[in-house]
Write a structure and sequence with these properties.
By secondary structure, the chain is an alpha/beta fold. It folds into two domains: about 220 residues, Rossmann fold; about 140 residues, 3-Layer(aba) Sandwich (Rossmann fold), CATH 3.40.50. About 40% of the residues lie in helices and about 15% in strands. It contains 18 helices and 15 strands. It has a seven-stranded parallel β-sheet. Strands 13-14-10-15 form a four-stranded parallel β-sheet, with helices on one face. The longest helix has 15 residues. The protein starts with 8 loop residues before the first strand and ends in a 7-residue tail after the last strand. It binds adenosine-5'-triphosphate. The site of adenosine-5'-triphosphate (ATP) has 21 residues, from helix 7. It catalyses: ATP + H2O = ADP + phosphate + H(+). Its EC number is 3.6.4.13. Keywords: ATP-binding, Helicase, Hydrolase, Nucleotide-binding.
């Protein structure tokens, strides 16, 4: 093992930290590829050993090594060191977040300096971790008050963000040296039990609340949830929430009447902020943010992640001229697909429990074929997804961007991911318009015809 300094770290992937004897047995057995992982990276906890025996970790390790040897950009730990509590930083490293993504590298210093921020970066670029790290830098677990609020458009996205927020806080329970009080995260989402949330908020307010605007408004109006102690307010998928006429008035009220932008840090996030100059103007004018709000715009030239490979299949007519419904498609797959993947359905018409069960099955399964509507198009992170099929073209280029962005969600992977569009010949010009607007290229896939 080409190790020559005490601060060398081995990056391997496994969430559980390995004990020293177990780790050294592990290292012995993997000598041939250890050289790849030996990093001369300075971490404050010198004994840290991050065990990640898979290819992703090699990429991470190599990336770190390259950045380090070129005296390049700092690690996530270096960026967060003086702001984020040590136990959260350790947790970050345990789960393999070592190198910052572009948006994290650009936005975190801005956020730590106290500015309001518009996080505008590609799908799958790591915006969630960016604002969660800000939140963990600001909240005090000893204080019994809601100090951070994250507003999301769907229950599914809310559950996902709650899980990541809890995962980052988890180390606190395991470390006896740290204070006993842990960060609590409440999911206040449509379809949840509001009565239970009311008692929870009254008895012992959680530090972080992740909420859909509908459920949140009910508790704000009844003054059960008082955002007086809010230090950070995040609105995720902000363009979507402002676009939806049902939610926009509640959102405006939250931003201005229930709390003042002068008393909190405000973060808006999305991969698509149309007419962003106009939006920034509105933010300041309407006092949704303070006047010095910073627009962190990553990959401004290329809104579409470069790892996505777009194709289309052109048909003369779709069967009986009908748009394919999820039921038709799922029945077809169940009748004709003989492969090993689980076939799952997720759509608005299902009840909340079945929706949650579908996502749990997808996440725990060995492979899946998920048939879904636009309900998963915003923010849902299923990093193992390699192919997206659009059976109907989305209405707008922005919708296309978000649907396509459900794949290609491994920040340091060099793999290609596929988005295939099944279109009618007369829809080619619509797809062409999306290509021009989002600056990507879509290639025709010629199907071999039988007989
Ligand atoms: N620094 C990092 N290193 C490795 N993986 C990361 C890092 N930051 C985020 N990720 C992973 O990248 C994936 C995408 O992150 P995230 O869900 O935050 O994307 P997003 O920018 O919010 O996308 P969208 O616009 O689609 O909501 C997640 O699986 C997350 O675990």
């Amino acid at each position: 093992m080409a190790s020559n300094s005490a601060s060398q770290i081995l990056a391997i992937t496994k969430t559980a930290p390995y004990s020293k004897p177990r780790a050294s047995r592990f290292l012995q057995s993997r000598k041939p590829y250890l050289n790849l992982c030996c990093l001369s990276q300075k971490f404050s906890n010198d004994n840290a050993l991050f065990c990640l025996p898979n290819s992703k970790s090699f990429l991470l390790a190599k990336e770190l090594e390259e950045r380090n040897s070129n005296n390049h950009s700092p690690t996530l730990r270096e960026i967060c060191q003086d702001h984020v509590p040590g136990n959260v930083l350790r947790r970050l490293e345990e789960v393999g977040y070592l190198v910052p993504t572009d948006v994290q590298r650009e936005a975190l210093p801005v956020l730590f300096s106290g500015n309001d921020c518009i996080l505008h970066a590609q799908t799958g670029s790591g915006k969630t971790l960016t604002y969660l790290l800000l939140i963990y830098s600001q909240i005090n677990p000893k204080k019994s008050a809601v100090q951070a609020l994250i507003v999301v458009p769907t229950r599914e996205l809310g559950m996902q963000i709650t899980k990541v927020a809890r995962m980052l806080a988890a180390a606190r329970h395991m470390d006896p040296e740290l204070e006993q009080k842990s960060y609590t995260v409440m999911a206040l989402l449509d379809g949840g039990m509001l009565r239970r949330h009311k008692s929870w908020l009254k008895a012992e307010p959680p530090a972080i609340v992740v909420a859909t605007i509908g459920s949140l408004s009910q508790l704000l109006e009844k003054q059960i949830f008082k955002p007086d102690s809010l230090r950070v307010l995040v609105v995720d998928e902000v363009d979507f929430l402002f676009k939806s006429s049902k939610q926009v008035s509640s959102l405006r009220k939250l931003l201005t009447s229930y709390s003042s932008c002068n008393n909190r840090q405000t973060v808006f996030a999305s991969a698509s902020i149309l007419q962003h100059r106009r939006f920034i103007h509105d933010c300041i004018q309407q006092k949704w943010t303070k006047g010095d709000v910073v627009h962190v715009h990553v990959n401004r030239i290329m809104p579409m992640p470069a790892c996505l490979y777009h194709r289309f299949v052109s048909e003369k007519s779709k069967k009986s001229g009908q748009a394919s419904s999820t039921t038709v498609l799922i029945d077809f797959l169940r009748a004709s697909y003989e492969g090993p993947l689980d076939i799952l359905l997720l759509e608005e018409d299902m009840n909340f429990n079945s929706r949650a069960a579908s996502l749990t099955d997808v996440r725990k399964g060995d492979g899946y074929l998920l048939v879904s509507t636009d309900i998963v198009a915003r923010g849902i992170d299923l990093p193992e997804t390699t192919h997206i099929y659009n059976f109907d073209l989305p209405k707008t280029a922005i919708d296309y961007l978000h649907r396509a962005g459900r794949t290609g969600r491994k920040p340091f992977s060099d793999k290609k991911y596929y988005v295939t569009n099944i279109i009618l010949s007369e829809e080619r010009f619509v797809l062409q318009r999306f290509e021009n607007e989002l600056m990507f290229h879509c290639e025709e896939l010629i199907m071999e015809t039988q007989g």
